[in-house]
Amino acid sequence: MIKLGIIGTNWISKMFVEAALQTGSYTLTTVYSRTEEKGNAFLADLDTDTDNVAVVTTLSDLYTNIDVVYIASPNALHFEQAKVAIASDVHVIVEKPSFSNPTEFAIIEELLTRHENVRVFEAARHVHQSNFKLMQQAVIELPQVQGATFVYQKYSSRYDAYLEGQEPNVLTREFSGGALYDLGVYPIYAAIALFGAPRAVQYLPTLLNNGADGRGTANLFYDQFNVTVIFGKNANSYLSSEIYGLKETISTNNIAELNTITYHDGDGNADNIGVAGTSNPMVAEASDFSRVITDPINEHVRYQQWWQLAKQVNQTLFDLRQSAGIVFPADIKD
Ligand SMILES: NC(=O)c1ccc[n+]([C@@H]2O[C@H](COP(=O)([O-])OP(=O)(O)OC[C@H]3O[C@@H](n4cnc5c(N)ncnc54)[C@H](OP(=O)(O)O)[C@@H]3O)[C@@H](O)[C@H]2O)c1
């Protein structure tokens, strides 16, 4: 069993723990929280026996008795928390977006050269799902790709908090937040997994008063086509996402959730090529990561592919921000 530790006690950590336990490969060992009270409340909320799970309030205590840490803290904290884990020879599953910029990513890469048995995974849950793989296969079979439009725009309760004058972490540059890093990362991930790294990018954001992006439109430029990406946290969209062949189109109801995958042939006939997903959308990634941790030699190629993908996404997110003049404090710290 892989001994799992958790950083962050919000709902996403609960979902990940439930997914991990569902795979049968992990056992929850330790929960880190800034306060014992919140750590205990997190455990009480889990629908599993937690008698042997420790709650700790320092990272050094967290890393003593676990094999892997799942980091679901505000984005800007991932880097320092992951560094301590790697230095302690603990594997890392870090929520998207893994790190704030390519400088941080490079420091993590360099640190990994000195801890070569440690594996770091970015929790981009959608690209591990069966429906993503089915969509990927359908794209390979297209006679030609002529472009794509990906949309992920959901009104967030955190935007209500922002309107009330609060500064929720996810809508601040201090915590490396904003629409691009929070939701835009999903369609950007999908585009790069399907088509590779773009040769150029452009981001046109709508900014909040604090300089973070509330929503926006990005363009990823490839040699033969462009991908248009629409995302945001301050409005709802009901548009599906589409990939354009010649006369063929592949569509999904939602590029981050992938509940449906439809192939439309040249005559307009629609065929459902997706499968029903698991009720918990994090099971596929939890299962993939456990395979690499337990069988690192045979799973090395897949691991390297995810790592290179994470690196390209990290660079692309940064380039998009640069094109819009959005600077995070994490970019300018010593
Ligand atoms: N894959 C997905 O579907 C998905 C969905 C949602 C979020 N996420 C990702 O998960 C991560 C967490 O997002 P979130 O919305 O849950 O963030 P959040 O609510 O701002 O913070 C998450 C946790 O981090 C700790 N925390 C909060 N503020 C902190 C601070 N100032 N200093 C230190 N610790 C702090 C809190 O735990 P304690 O109070 O217990 O210390 C909190 O429960 C992000 O990277 C996000 O992108 C992923």
UniProtKB/TrEMBL annotation:
All copies of domain Gfo/Idh/MocA-like oxidoreductase N-terminal, residue ranges: 2-118
Q: Where is the signal peptide?
A: none
Q: Coiled-coil segments, which residues?
A: none
Look up and give the organism this protein is from: Leuconostoc pseudomesenteroides
Named from the GO MF annotations, one term is: nucleotide binding
Domain GFO/IDH/MocA-like oxidoreductase: residue ranges: 159-250
Name of this chain's protein: Gfo/Idh/MocA family oxidoreductase
InterPro entries xref list: Gfo/Idh/MocA-like_OxRdtase_N, GFO_IDH_MocA-like_dom, NAD(P)-bd_dom_sf
* Superkingdom field: Bacteria
